[in-house]
Amino acid sequence: MPNWKEKIDKERLPKHIAIIMDGNGRWARKHDKPRVFGHQNGVTAVRNAAEAAAELGVDYLTLYAFSTENWNRPKKEVNALMELLVKTINSETDTLLKNKIKLNSIGDISEMPQDCYDELKIAIDRTADNDRMTLNLALNYSGRWDITQAGRRIAQDVKDGVMNPEDITDEKFNDYLDTTGMPDVELLIRTSGEQRISNFLLWQVAYAELYFTPKLWPEFTKEDLHEAIVNFQCRERRFGKTSEQLTESRKCE
Ligand code: IPE
Ligand code: IPE
Ligand code: MG
Fold first, then answer.
1. Phi/psi at 62 (nearest 5 deg)?
2. Who has the most CB within 10 Å: 2, 18, 77, 131?
3. Class in CATH terms, 19-235
4. Alpha-carbon distance 123 to 104, whole Å?
5. For the segment 16-73, what is each residue's pLDDT rounded down to a tens digit?
6. Is the CB of 18 under 6 A from ligand 2?
7. Ligand 1 pocket test target in 19, 22, 200, 212 with most atoms within 8 Å of CB
């Protein structure tokens, strides 16, 4: 296996990586275990991805942990996921502090179970002064929800006379999204072989490079993240221009 980390150009890291962590259930089935076992083993992959991204110097890592659609799963699985979340946030906060990672959440967390909400708030507060990397957990999140809540708040501001309709620009809209203050997603990774966005960050992935891997989430390692970044750096990001107009050269074999 190539040493992917060595091949990464530290000067051209994606500033914002987002991951759709998929395949926990299939991983569990592969091991003849209940789905919850897959979620439990997914925690190791979360820790590895966060550590690997922070070690490299990525500014933002956003992980899709629970979508608004995931409430439609069997109650038993939803409860187990919430329990796991509480337990994990509680046990991992010290590691986040050690690694100087700031925890943040996107999504409507007010609708999460109370203990989940409380645990999350404590961890967010405790890690608020960390500045190495922001780890964004998308919880009760969906891209359409985000765009809708932004639209609603903009409409309110116009109604209140704080803003004029002509002030609503691309940039201004960004300020109202739950990812306010963060750069656009540059690299979007999805594990498990599925090739869809599943209502994740819709606005924010407008020009992201999409990377799909057949690996199931609990199997995803630091090296896999390194490989995805190398793959990202090998791509020509034209943003509508022609190849000839680009000054930056790709670093690839
Ligand atoms: C992703 O794994 C974790 C969550 C959505 C919470 P899945 O639970 O979706 O696993 P598969 O897709 O059924 O294998
Ligand atoms: C997307 O995975 C949501 C998360 C990873 C949290 P799903 O497994 O819920 O997505 P679909 O149902 O395959 O689109
Ligand atoms: Mg899935």
1. -110, 125
2. 18
3. alpha beta
4. 9
5. 999 999 999 999 999 999 999 999 999 999 999 999 999 999 999 999 999 999 999 9
6. no
7. 22
Task: Tokens for 133, please give them.
Answer: 């990397």
Q: Sign of the C-alpha dihedral, residues 191, 192, 193, 196?
A: negative
Q: How far apart are CA 103 and CA 124, in angstroms?
A: 5
Number of H helices, E strands in the chain: 8, 6
118 as an active site residue: the answer is no
For 118-168, what is each residue's pLDDT tens digit?
999 999 999 999 999 999 999 999 999 999 999 999 999 999 999 999 999
236 CA to centre of ligand 1 in angstroms:
31
Q: 19 exposed, middle or buried (CB, 10 Å; 0-12, 13-18, 19+)?
A: buried
- Of 154, 244, 168, 201, residue with least CA distance to 60: 201
Give the global pTM: 0.97
